[in-house]
Structures are given as C-alpha cells and as structure tokens.
Amino acid sequence: MFWLTGCQSAASGTPLPNLVGMHGDKAEDALQKPDAYLAKDVAFQDVKAGETSPRTVIIKGNWKVCGQSPGAGSPSVKNMTVKLYVVKNEENCPGGSPTPSPSAAAPAAVPTAPATTAKPTPEAAPSTVAPAPTATTNPPSDTHTPPSAPAVAPTPPAPAHSPEGSCRAHTVAYCGWDRGETPEQSGETATCKDGYVSFSGDDGSGTCSGHKGVRVWFK
Questions:
Q1: Any idea what the Cα angle at residue 10 is, between residues 9 and 16, rounded to 5°?
Q2: Which helix (H) or strand (E) holds 84?
Q3: Which of 8, 64, 85, 196 has a CA between 20 and 30 Å from the CA of residue 97?
Q4: SS3 assignment, position 83
Q5: Cα–Cα distance, 42 to 118 (Å, whole number)
Q6: Three-class SS string for 90-147?
Q7: What is the C-alpha separation between 163 and 213, in angstroms, rounded?
Q8: pTM of this structure
Q9: Strand, helix or coil at 176?
Q10: Cα(2)–Cα(13) distance, rounded to whole angstroms?
Q11: Looking at residue 103, what is its pLDDT?
C-alpha cells in the first residue's frame, strides 16, 4: 500500500520500528524517545475510507496506525519527518485490519476443548407385564340377604275352663271364665271396678261393696 513505502535515504542510520497497530501517542513516543531520537517530526494523516476530507488528529491516543512512511526498517536520517496513516481506534484500516507490531501483538488464544453434547437418554420400553392383583385378607362379603322367615303368630292360650258351679247367674257384670280371664289369686270371687280383689262367700252377697261394684265374676 502507498504508505508502507516511501523515500528512503541513502544515508545509514537506526532502522525505523514497525509502528502499524500501535496507538498514535505510543508510536510517536517510539520515534522520539530520548535514547534513540529517530524523527524530528511526526505527522498524522486520517485515511478512513469514504471521508470527503481528512479529519484532524488532536488526541493521538484515540487513533491507531495503519501505515507509516518511511516504512519499517528504513534507516533514520537527520531532521527526518515520519508520517503515520491513522484511523480511529474503533475503525478498520483501509483494506482490512493492520498487522500489529510484535510489541502490540495480542496474546495467543488458548484452545478450548470442544463442547461435549450430552447424549439423550433412551426412553424405557413400555412394560408388558400385567400388574399383580392386590391380595385381600378378607373375602368379599355376601351382600345377599336371605329372605326372613314368615312370622309365626303366637298360639292363643286355650280358654280357661270354669270350675263347676262358677259364675252362677248374676244380674251385674260378666263371668271372667267366659272371656278367657282367670282369677289373679286362688279363691278369688270377683274383681271390683276399682281393682280390689274380693273373696266374698259362695253366694256372692256383699261382693265389692264399697268398691264401686263388681267388674268380673269368677264364682
């Protein structure tokens, strides 16, 4: 490229360093350091592609060197002026990124192991074994209820037989023997209307007197 070559002096001197890739201020310091004063003047020229007019370089640290004239290795001469062709640090040099100088070379990238892709876990095949039936400790209860036996009507008590001569003709009440009633106590003549038990004589005279009269006779 046009800035990598220049008029080289026939006089011998210290070779110019490679300044490509350096920041503008560092490149200027490399040319004008006290122990090896290589250039009297350092000029900066904006070479960004597409610019209608070159931009002025004010803060030299904001610019990077894309080329130099005279080129690297050219011998320095007395009262030499070195021109540096620059673009902003965030911009690309014309024709691609410049090759940095050995002092500004980026550290070599450390190779990284390739990413390991996890193998998918195969899906388990569906089981064809039928589940075992759950054991039960008690057999299922029989919900069938047998029909109940028909109720048997109680046998009515046999009618009591009145003793011979009982219940002689009375004008009031009724004979208990005729209705299946029996005396509550032995020798009972009648039961009065108030519940009193009478043991009157065989003729029945005065029975239940004072007890509201006879309710039922047994003699």
A1: 50
A2: strand 81-88
A3: 8
A4: strand
A5: 58
A6: CCCCCCCCCCCCHHHCCCCCCCCCCCCCCCCCCCCCCCCCCCCCCCCCCCCCCCCCCC
A7: 23
A8: 0.39
A9: helix
A10: 23
A11: 39
SS3 labels along 187-216: CCCEEECCCCEECCCCCCCCCCCCCCCEEE
| Whole-number Å distance between alpha carbons of 145 and 162 | 49
DSSP string spanning 26-40? HHHHHHH-GGG---S
- Answer for the pair 202, 163: CB distance below 8 angstroms, yes or no: no
Instruction: Give the whole-angstrom CA distance, residue 92 versus residue 155.
Output: 128
Beta bridge partners of 191: 197, 216
Res. 72 pLDDT band, cuts 50 70 90: very high
Q: Please state the rounded mean pLDDT for residues 2-20.
A: 63
Q: How confident is the model at residue 131 (pLDDT cuts 50, 70, 90)?
A: low
DSSP 8-state code for residue 14: P
Q: Which residues pair with 86 in a beta bridge?
A: 46, 65
CA angle 169, 171, 176 (to 5 degrees): 65
Q: Which residues contact 41 (CB under 8 A, 6 or more apart)?
A: 80, 81, 82
- Express each pLDDT in 133-182 by its tens digit: 665 556 556 566 666 766 666 665 555 556 665 676 677 788 887 888 88
Residue 86: how many other CB atoms lie within 10 Å = 29
